[in-house]
Amino acid sequence: MWPETIDVLLNHRSIRKFKSTPIPQPALAKIIEAAQQASTSSSMQCFTVINVSDQDKRKKLAELSGNQAYIEECPVFLVWCADLYRYEQAAKLHYEGELTSTVENFIVATVDTALAAQNAAIAAESLGYGIVYIGGIRNNPQEVSALLGLPSHVYPVFGMCMGEPDQAPLTRPRLPQQAILHENSYDQEAVESGIQQYDGTIRQYMLERSEGKLNTSWSESMAAKINHPRLHMGDFLRSKGFLQK
Amino acid sequence: MWPETIDVLLNHRSIRKFKSTPIPQPALAKIIEAAQQASTSSSMQCFTVINVSDQDKRKKLAELSGNQAYIEECPVFLVWCADLYRYEQAAKLHYEGELTSTVENFIVATVDTALAAQNAAIAAESLGYGIVYIGGIRNNPQEVSALLGLPSHVYPVFGMCMGEPDQAPLTRPRLPQQAILHENSYDQEAVESGIQQYDGTIRQYMLERSEGKLNTSWSESMAAKINHPRLHMGDFLRSKGFLQK
């Protein structure tokens, strides 16, 4: 018997269809409180959440993120931003000179944001809500930043739809543990055999899910993805003051 | 009444002193299974966990991460790596040519790793274990990578100590919600007043925790951090094949 929390974690599946029932304010505040309690590098807490309730902005964000209708329709849509601006404002109260924007503090801010968002996702799921992360927010990060008034040293890492699920998709099988967990050193052979095994698992899963129509292995879908690398992200981030060194 | 999972999330505090009791293998496997079920960008699952059980490697990692003894002493020490190597091996089965290593897929891999690690942290805490993230693993990432045999397109994002807590620290107060949650657009004034309010909270917390010896606000400790930016990370990551574009 595992604790309830383990069940919540293992039952995660992305939800892309929501009931219109709103999330009550106290529940959303608790979800954000849970997000804030995540680990944070040296207590820097380098993340900011924009709760987009304005319907015009929602519509615009849905378009900018690749026409994903559920961004417009879900009860709550959050944009999770990595934020070195707040940290810099705080430091400036006692420090003359500029923040050196490095790859290191880019990592710190991105990781802080992800840890907090994942706590929010789990808190929401424990309350019976569903979520989906929206990487598509990085399709047009310049326009998204302008729309949300993000200052320099802040960037949108991902969006998150949240609400009561109106669908019950299957949980998707993950890579075999041998391919992602190694003891003492990286095991390239275990990775290779893990990919092979997982290709079979995913082909089976896709066939079942599509009633025989989709016959695709994991590695095939990875190869298909390789041409969509959002090449603009480096220039965009440097324009926002990140990755200077 | 909130679900048990919310309590687990809100009770997080970093643990730096552990009992020697081992974590049973089935519990560790379940923790990793929970990690794997986290959201992942397009099912890429760009992370790898190295479980460092070898005592010599532990000792070395503790030195390389800034002489943190608990890295050597904790029952389980995991190194969480962002991994584009596995994805590339899979894609290569069907795709001629090189992976373009971009800022975008660096973000994908770093975020995938953080989401999975946070699931592991929460799973562990729900089982009564404590954890602490070790950003110090990035003090000497080249040496850490060599020690763990990490191939190119893999980098150590952070370590994680795990085990039965042998201390009961207070949870540390977080920024007021007004400073991290905004509606529809970024609110710089709320950030400023939030910093001011939080400075008072943290000064009080530090005074209480140190029995009157530490009189430091949050912004003061942020200013003190600004000189330690691990400037090597950019060059290191490029040498490992990341951030080429």
From TrEMBL, chains A, B:
It holds the Pfam family Nitroreductase. One of its GO terms (molecular function) is oxidoreductase activity. InterPro entries: Flavin_OxRdtase_Frp (IPR016446), Nitroreductase (IPR029479), Nitroreductase-like (IPR000415). Residues 11-163 form the Nitroreductase domain. Keywords: Flavoprotein, FMN, NADP, Oxidoreductase. Belongs to the flavin oxidoreductase frp family. This is FMN reductase (NADPH). It comes from Paenibacillus algorifonticola.
